[in-house]
Amino acid sequence: MFFKGRMRKILLLICSVLVLTSIVLLTCLRGEMQGISDTKLSTGTINSCLAYDSESKIIVVGTNSTNELIAYQEGREIWRASAKGAYSNIVINHKKGIVCAGNQDYRVYLYDLKSGKKLREIDTTHRVVAVDFNTAGDRIAVATLTGTSSASAMVFDLDGSELLSLSLKVKVAGILFTGDQSFAIGNNRGELIRFNLSGQELGKYKTNYSVLQMNHTSKGGIAVCKDGSYYLFDQDLNILRSGRIENDIHAVISSVGCDEKNEGIVVGTEEGYIFAQDQSGRQIAELKVEGAVRSFATDGDKVIFTGDEDHIREVELKNLTALELKKSLFIFARIMLVVSLLFMTILMLTMFPQSGKFLKKCCRDIWKARMAYFLLLPGLILIWIFNYQGIFTAFIRSFTNWSSQNSTLAQIQFVGFDNFRRMITEGYFLIGVRNLLILVLTGAIKILTVPLLCAWLCYSASGTKRKYVHRFLFVLPIVVPSVINAMIWLKIYDPNIGLINEFLRTIGLGNLARVWLGDAGTAIWAIVFMGFPFVNAMAFLVYYGGLLAIGHDVEESALVDGANRWNIFCRIQLPLLKPQFRIMLILTLIGTMQNFNEIYVLTQGGPGTSTYVPALELYFNVAQFGRYGYACALGVVLFLMTLTITLINLYFTRERQK
Fold first, then answer.
1. Mean pLDDT throughout 283-308?
2. Which of 14, 423, 501, 524 is the most exposed, fewest CB within 10 Å of its CB?
3. Of 348 and 617, which is predicted with more confidence?
4. Which contiguous run of DSSP H or E holds residue 53?
5. Is the whole-model pTM more than 0.70?
6. Is 510 in contact with 504 (CB distance < 8 Å)?
7. Which of 123, 155, 183 is the last residue of a domain?
8. Cα–Cα nearest to 456, from 625, 337, 570
9. Residues 644-649: contacts with CB within 8 Å, 24+ apart?
10. Between 614-623 and 428-448, two packed helices, what is the crossing angle to 10 degrees?
11. pLDDT digit string (tens) for 558-599?
């Protein structure tokens, strides 16, 4: 593994060439990884739908917030129209030179394609979902929603006269003409149904999930369902091709489109993902843009799309296969760069005698104990899966918007340090830290006093039986669960029948009785006082074991030298118990930072925020608020605080050992 002289120089040269090659590849490929190109057209607001006329090269875009219809030709705006609501669907008939736009103000608008002049306005009396022209351009099909689970399919002529109104007890998602004398709808039952202009059903195809959108193709139409499945059909509703996108990130499907030859299929999502499949049904790309993808339009081998952003973009489907190759090459270049740099580092380290000897020794020791490392490997893998993987995941997710609303990989986005800033801006974390300091300081006092006194008294007692009985009685409460202990104290603090208030009334101090857990001035101190007389069984056993380790010989020698019990305790036993004090302080600090059970049972952080602590805030954000990314950030901060305390303790322990 280790080389000398000329061979090392040759290997270093090879590694240097590989590193430079990798950097060049990564630089060249980085700009070609997106697969999406910008048309340089911007509406300046959120878009909702679009249509494209390949003959005149005109793109018509509907906006969602400004309620405008904007037409572009050769990169410049040629006209603009407005309505009272957002545009939901647009189609263009080139033969007639007319744009048909369905609007959420219950109307369908007809505009001249080149001038933008409004030709007609058709009132449908219900919210328009989809519209379409027949091939001749003299009929308009309109799908509207008439209720939460009802719709209507309507047909109008260019004069706005109603030729057909078909009431449907389903929710319609799309409507397309399948010839001049028939049309098809897609509904939430997963049905594609074809009707003639008299309203008679001509055919039906049943899918497995709700139809979300329908779009035109050169051979008929295409529909996409909620599960990501798509169906390409002809004018007789015969299924020409079907498939399903690979949606491992559980993105929410929103739109569908294809190229002119019906070979490439694209499916858009609410999270801004675009999945592309080729003619064989193989998924060739997974692209990402900002905002939901709402609408696709065909332009030869390309598809133009828009959505919840102000830009119009396009994807050239024939180049996506090459894009996959480029992505594979990009990954290979990254791996080659990492491996080359690692190997270069090892070679350079072997050039120095000390580092070379160290590496050789490490490799030699690992090779000698290879069977031991091999046998340890399953245990290390399990430890990683069940312990360290969760810590690593929490650290990564603390920089994201992970929540109950953004729960899938498609929805989770990187937000930088926003979660950590929120700890400061919201203020709850800082209030929790203040309360935590009170609990830590009082907990340290409790753990260093009463348990030590009880351990010393039990150690000093005469008689083996007596010591055993006292030790047993001091340790017995450890079997009571902390939640049960908290519920007992909840009754003790009860303002009506609680032991404390009843005792105060009995001795004539009823004026001091109060709602101990309901008063912001006393709640935190009621938490502190819980557990009186503070005989911590764990601390008692640790101190008692430390006193036994010191032994009676030291005590007897001190007595011979004229020392009394107080001198022996202060000058001999206390200094020798420093390791026990240190470990109990560390455990108390860590336990106080992580524990919130008693506070949750007694006050749930109230009244107000008077007993709020960071661990309780973490729990609330997970269990009640669903802000998982913020909870991860809280967990990371608590972990770093705990780690800092542990490292400080290890440092001082090592210094004393030296």
1. 90
2. 14
3. 617
4. strand 47-53
5. no
6. yes
7. 123
8. 570
9. 645/586, 645/589, 645/590, 646/586, 646/590, 649/582, 649/586
10. 130
11. 888 888 888 888 888 898 998 899 889 999 999 999 889 999
